Each structure stands twice: as structure tokens, then as C-alpha cells.
From TrEMBL:
Designated name of the protein: Acyl-coenzyme A oxidase
Annotated residues for binding of FAD: T141, G180
Transmembrane segments: none
GO molecular function: acyl-CoA oxidase activity; ATP binding; FAD binding; fatty acid binding
Keywords: ATP-binding, FAD, Fatty acid metabolism, Flavoprotein, Lipid metabolism, Nucleotide-binding, Oxidoreductase, Peroxisome
Record-linked SUPFAM superfamilies: Acyl-CoA dehydrogenase C-terminal domain-like, Acyl-CoA dehydrogenase NM domain-like
Location(s), subcellular: Peroxisome
């Protein structure tokens, strides 16, 4: 199919090599080539062909995705893939923006076995689980409790005579609920999205399991019922850490899809007039459309950068823990908590903005933006609700203030809290990314000090830490967000500095995106900068001008920057986001193919007939 002339023209501009940026995003040329190979292994294999999942009922969707997910597992085994990124490539190429039915088995059942099973148990369960010889799920949440783990009601009473645990969900609120990939007991019913996952309920009534079913690498129960505590009790929370540490990159992936769709479509879509008689411009030439999408484009790159960094950091900490070193578990937990919370929240807001920016066609499943949205938005609740996780980060920051007062060294990701910040010169409209980073770190430091003063005063008055925290939860959450933004901007600046050395032309365009991210973040909290006397009105006016100027620099690069995400059309599955930009013809073809247009509308005639007969 010929290339849409608008997109063809967009691809003749640009100042950097798209392929080189794709290689950087993938982590090197070899990884790009391997990703292409794996995608083709799926796309050329007829077993992965099937009905357009956007036309399927919940039951049909579950069946079709289960069929495909089993094919994904077979393909992954056939190709001997064990790298998580490569396995995710095969999965994403097959799932058409859905979450597969067996996802929870791999991310929430296998991971805890890996982390908390002893060697014997690994042989018994982890090895067969990795081969899908046993299928598991993660049944923690109950009808009455999800966030407050210490409030869970399920009981495991030890029967010393039989060396067994007797499991019970003694109350209705104790019923296990939301259990992804939970079979045989019951499905909790239709949901907002996640149609490919059978989130189940599980009632336990005197279910007996052997003593050695308790994962014993951390804590264990001896034959006489004595509980031997793990060296570090918090490691039992570790199974939730793996998914949280992975979800920032998942957010980046989903936001990258949405901005690819919205930016390509905004170049194809012509609407209204700027100069009368000069034809309808591309909607991406409107400043308001750029103001919707370019900060999100910058955000997608920022989130990808920090998502890769978080996964590397977490993997290092897990290796340390496997060797018995727990000193970085707390930092890993609060980084994963803050990044998972902020990134997934801003991503679902961003996907919605992308959908709105595509007008009516964004509301059609032909765009796939609604599919991406309803499946992504769960990530702001699942694996730790947003506020719950931000409070974890906030409590850690309050401890950092005490550490600072006591001269205790801080973890590297919060070292900036011990730095002094000053800004004397007036900002013009070309503030560099390092100055923007300093400002964002300054705000986080000041906010942390400000919140800590309130919490301390409350603690003095009540002597109760939980009460003190509860009275200031709103500003504690804001404090955690401010810190997380400093972590994101630091990772982005660090990566762009590195790329500026290795590939100046790519680095330059990414530094523009980094400035857009930083300026947008500062303008979103301009009042704080005035209140803390870090910026004046003139500074804010100048960086507002800078933002609109940056949009003009990014405009000719925008399509190339989303092309660099390198989504195959069959993976993106969006008619608005097609690489060739042939939207209208394919929208019409897709609509005509809808089963709704094939059904005999007997029902229509039957009921309308009644109206006519009713002699209204
Ligand atoms: C490998 C993955 C690969 C890819 C993924 C890709 C795609 C996936 C696609 C879809 C999947 C996404 C989602 C679907 C799966 C969803 C599955 C679930 O939802 S499972 C259930 C999740 N539930 C939760 O997250 C519950 C949230 N609540 C909590 O975690 C806890 O209640 C709490 C909020 C942390 C409170 O804990 P507690 O009540 O004990 O009290 P404290 O706050 O005082 O904490 C005590 C102490 O422990 C430390 N700590 C807490 N949590 C952790 C942790 N996870 N790791 C390490 N340390 C932890 C805390 O800091 C305190 O320390 P102290 O201050 O005492 O030093
Ligand atoms: C798609 C999806 C898949 C899931 N898969 C699984 C799974 O496979 N296994 C599993 O075990 N669970 C699973 N869950 C459940 C999920 O982990 C919980 O829904 C999540 O932990 C939130 O807990 P909750 O639902 O009890 O919300 P609640 O904690 O009841 O939250 C409700 C509101 O109360 C607020 N709140 C609660 N506590 C506090 C507090 N201390 N301070 C301030 N505000 C507070 C929250 O911020 C929120 O606004 C899944 C959920 C979803 C949506």
C-alpha cells in the first residue's frame, strides 16, 4: 500500500538516524535484530492468526487469548528463549494489546518461587512451573483487603499431628479475590479491562497442605510447629517487588504505543484552517495539539530510560539478596514503589490524552487506544495501589531527614537531599537540562523538609507515628511524587549525557525532549518554586516561552521519534497508527468487516415492527 504523502514528507525531515535511536532503545543493534527476528517468528506463523480480538465477546476473547498464549509458550520454548525481554517480545507480538491469561503464572507465581523457595522446593515446583507443567497464581488479595496485607483474614493453622497447614477463608471478606489466572473456583465477573485474564475468587474450607509447602528459603515452620523467622522479614514482600520493578518499563511501552498512534494520526489528519484559503493544516501544526502530545512524547522517552534503569537496579539488588546482603532492599522497594505509582498513573492519563487528541476515531477500537487504556489502567491499582505505594516512598523520605540530622549516609538515589541548591542568575528561554534537574531536585528537597516539619510537630504532639502520618498523608504523597520526579529526571539526564557522547545527533534531539520533560514538570508546580523563592515570575515566563520554542524544534522530528519505537503494525494493531498512514481506507474496511454488519438485524425489524403495530 502506498505511503501517505504526509507521513512520507515527515520522514524526509529530521536531524538524526532513526535506526540508531531504535538500537539505543533496544540496548544495541543486536537486540534490535533479535527483536525483529522474534516478531517475525510470531507474525509469519499461522498459529498466531485469528479473529480481530476487538470484535470478540469476553468469553471469546479469553478463549482466543488462551489459545495464543499457549502458542506463545510453545514458541518461546521452541526457540529456547529465557531472556525476559525476548520472551516479552514474543508475547507482545501475539497479544494485540491484551494481557494474556497465563501472565500471572509467570510474573506472580514463578517469581516468588524463584525468590523464596529453598533448593528442594525449587526442584519440586520452580522447574516444572517454568516449563508450565504446573500452572499457578498469586492469591493474596481478599474481598475485604488488598492494600493492608496485615489485615488479611485467611488462616493457615498448623496441625502438628499431621504436619499439615489447614487453610481457611473464615469469613466472606476473607474470600480470595482478584486472583489472576485462578482456575476451578470462580471468575469474579466482567471487569473494566484485563478481559484476557480470569481474575478469580477462591474459598478455602479446611484445605490441608503439607508443611513443606511453605516456601522455606526465608522463614520456615519446624516439625513441632516452631516458626523460624527469615533473616530479613521484609524479603517475604519481595514477590511484589519484581512486578513493581518491571511496571515502569511496561508503562513506558504502553505510553510509547499511544504517542506513536496519536502523533502519526495527527500528521495524517487535516482539519479546519489556519490561513483562509490555504487548505486544512495537519492537526499536529496546531500549538494545542503539540502541547498535548510533545510532553507525552518526552515522557515516553523519560519513562523508558528510568524503566530500564529500575530493572537493572532491581536485578542487582536481588542478586545481592541471594547472596545474603539486604542493605539495598529498602531503597529498591521505595524506588520500585514510587516509580511504579507515578509512571503508571501518568501513563494512563497520557493514553487518555492521546485518545482525546485523535478526536472521534480515537474513541473507536480501530485506534486500539481504548484497548491499550483499559488494559494499562489496572497497573495503577494492581500490584500496589498508587497512594499506598507513594506512602511507602514518603515514609522512607521522612527517615532520610532523620538520617541527615544524625549524619547517617543516605542511599545514592536520595543523595541530592544532602546537597545545597542556589540559583542566582535569571533564567532565560534556553535553560539546559542540568539546570532543570537541579530545580526539580531542589523542590523535592524543600518539600521533604517542609513535610517532615509537619510530621515531626504532630509526632511531638501525639507521640504516635501512624497518627502523625495519617494527618499529613496528602502532602506525604506529594512529597513522594516530587522525589520520584527527581529520580526520573536524573535518569533521563544521565542517559542523554551518555548518548550525547556516543551519538551527538541523537543526543541533541533527546536533550530537547529532556528539556520539555523538565520544563513541563516545573511549570506544573510553579507555585512551589515561587513560594520557595527559587524562581521568579520572569523565570517562569521565560521557560514557558522556552517550551513553545522547543515544540517548534521537535515538530519536524516528531514522526521520526515515534518511528524509533519501532512498533510493527501487527504489534501496534491500530489503524490510526499505521506506519503507512493509510487510515481512512482501512478504517472503512475494518468497520465493514465488523460482525455487527454481518448479523441479520432481525431483532431490529422485530422491535421496530412492534412500534408500527403499536399505532403510536
Ligand atoms: C517480573 C514481572 C515482569 C513483567 C511484568 C509485566 C507485565 C505484567 C502485566 C500485568 C501484571 C500487572 C498486574 C497484575 C498483577 C497484580 C498482582 C497483584 O495485585 S498481587 C497483590 C498486590 N498487593 C499489594 O501490592 C499490596 C500492597 N500493600 C502492601 O504492600 C503492604 O500492605 C504495605 C502497604 C507495604 C504495608 O505493609 P505493612 O502493613 O507491613 O506495614 P509497613 O508499611 O510498616 O511495612 C513494614 C516494613 O516493610 C517494608 N516493606 C513493605 N513492603 C515491602 C516490599 N515490597 N519490599 C521490601 N520492603 C517492604 C516497609 O518499608 C517497612 O519497612 P520499615 O519501615 O519497617 O523499615
Ligand atoms: C487487574 C487486577 C489484577 C489483580 N490481580 C491480582 C492477583 O493476581 N493476585 C492478588 O492477590 N491480587 C490481585 N489484584 C488485587 C490488587 O492487588 C488490589 O486490588 C490492590 O492491592 C489494591 O487493594 P484494594 O483493592 O484492597 O484497594 P483498597 O486498599 O481498598 O483501596 C481503596 C482506596 O482506599 C485507599 N487506601 C487504602 N488504604 C489506605 C491507607 N492506608 N492510607 C490511605 N489510603 C488508603 C486507597 O488509596 C484507595 O483509594 C488485582 C487487581 C486488579 C485491578
Amino acid at each position: 500500500m502506498p505511503m501517505n504523502p504526509d507521513l512520507e514528507k515527515e520522514r524526509q525531515g529530521g536531524t538524526f538516524d532513526v535506526e540508531q535511536l531504535t538500537h539505543i532503545l533496544d540496548g544495541g543493534r543486536d537486540k534490535t535484530l533479535k527483536r525483529h527476528f522474534l516478531e517475525q517468528e510470531v507474525l509469519k506463523d499461522p498459529v498466531f492468526r485469528g479473529p480481530d480480538t476487538r470484535f470478540l465477546s469476553r468469553e471469546e476473547l479469553f478463549g482466543e487469548l488462551l489459545r495464543k498464549h499457549v502458542a506463545v509458550i510453545k514458541k518461546t520454548q521452541e526457540l529456547s528463549i529465557d531472556d525476559i525481554n525476548e520472551a516479552s517480545t514474543i508475547y507482545s507480538a501475539a497479544m494485540n494489546n491484551n494481557v494474556g491469561p497465563l501472565t500471572l503464572h509467570s510474573v506472580a507465581f514463578v517469581a516468588p518461587l524463584d525468590l523464596m523457595a529453598d533448593d528442594e522446593q525449587k526442584k519440586k515446583w520452580l522447574i516444572p512451573a517454568k516449563k508450565y507443567e504446573i500452572i499457578g497464581c498469586y492469591a493474596q488479595t481478599e474481598l475485604g483487603h488488598g492494600s493492608f496485607i496485615r489485615g488479611l483474614e485467611t488462616r493457615a493453622d498448623y496441625d502438628v499431628n499431621t504436619q499439615q497447614f489447614v487453610l481457611n477463608t473464615p469469613t466472606e471478606t476473607a474470600i480470595k479475590w482478584w486472583v489472576g489466572g485462578c482456575v476451578a473456583v470462580g471468575d469474579i465477573g466482567p471487569k473494566f479491562g484485563f478481559g484476557g485474564v480470569d481474575n478469580g475468587y477462591l474459598c478455602l474450607n479446611n484445605v490441608r497442605i503439607p508443611r513443606d509447602n511453605l516456601l522455606a528459603k526465608t522463614g520456615k515452620v519446624l516439625e513441632d510447629g516452631t516458626y523460624v523467622k527469615p533473616e530479613n522479614p521484609k524479603v517475604v514482600y519481595g514477590s511484589m517487588l519484581g512486578i513493581r520493578a518491571a511496571l515502569p518499563k511496561v508503562g513506558a511501552y504502553n505510553l510509547s504505543k499511544a504517542v506513536t498512534i496519536a502523533i502519526r494520526y495527527s500528521c495524517v489528519r487535516h482539519q479546519s484552517e489556519i490561513k483562509p484559503g490555504c487548505g486544512e493544516p495537519q492537526v499536529l501544526d496546531y500549538q494545542t495539539q503539540q502541547h498535548k502530545l510533545f510532553p507525552l512524547l518526552a515522557t515516553a522517552y523519560a519513562f523508558h530510560t528510568v524503566g530500564v534503569w529500575m530493572l537493572d537496579f532491581h536485578s542487582t539488588v536481588m542478586n545481592e539478596i541471594n547472596e545474603g546482603h539486604y542493605h539495598r532492599l529498602a531503597e529498591d522497594h521505595v524506588l520500585a514503589a514510587g516509580l511504579k505509582a507515578v509512571i503508571n498513573w501518568k501513563t494512563h492519563e497520557g493514553i487518555e490524552i492521546c485518545r482525546f487528541s485523535c478526536g472521534g476515531h480515537g474513541y473507536s477500537l480501530a485506534s486500539s487506544l481504548p484497548v491499550i487504556y483499559v488494559n494499562h489502567v489496572a497497573n495503577s491499582t494492581a500490584e500496589g495501589e498508587t497512594v499506598i505505594l507513594l506512602l511507602q516512598t514518603a515514609v522512607y523520605l521522612m527517615k532520610c531527614v532523620i538520617d541527615l540530622e544524625q549524619g547517617t549516609p543516605l542511599d545514592p538515589s536520595v543523595a541530592y537531599l544532602d546537597q545545597s541548591f542556589s540559583k542566582s542568575e535569571q533564567w532565560c528561554s534556553d535553560v539546559d537540562m542540568h539546570s532543570l534537574l537541579k530545580a526539580i531536585q531542589f523542590r523535592s528537597k524543600k518539600f521533604t523538609e517542609y513535610v517532615s516539619s509537619f510530621v515531626k510537630k504532630e509526632l511531638m504532639a501525639t507521640g504516635n507515628q501512624q497518627l502523625a502520618f495519617n494527618k499529613h498523608k496528602v502532602i506525604l504523597v506529594e512529597c513522594a511524587k516530587a522525589h520520584t520526579e527527581a529520580v526520573i529526571m536524573n535518569a533521563f539526564v544521565t542517559k542523554v549525557d551518555e548518548i550525547l557522547q556516543s551519538n551527538p545527533s541523537v543526543g541533541k534531539v533527546l536533550s530537547l525532549l529532556c528539556q520539555i520533560y523538565g520544563v513541563t514538570e516545573i511549570l506544573a508546580h510553579s507555585g512551589d518554586y515561587i513560594q520557595y523563592e527559587y524562581l521568579r515570575k520572569i523565570d517562569l515566563d521565560n521557560i514557558q516561552d522556552q517550551l513553545f520554542k522547543l515544540y517548534t524544534y521537535i515538530r519536524p522530528e516528531a514522526v521520526l521519534l515515534v518511528d524509533a519505537f519501532d512498533f510493527h503494525d501487527e504489534v501496534l494493531k491500530s489503524i490510526l497508527g499505521r506506519y503507512d498512514g493509510q487510515v481512512y481506507e482501512n478504517m472503512f474496511k475494518w468497520a465493514k468487516a465488523s460482525p455487527f454488519n454481518k448479523q441479520d438485524q432481525g431483532t431490529f425489524r422485530k422491535y421496530i415492527q412492534q412500534l408500527k403495530q403499536a399505532k403510536l
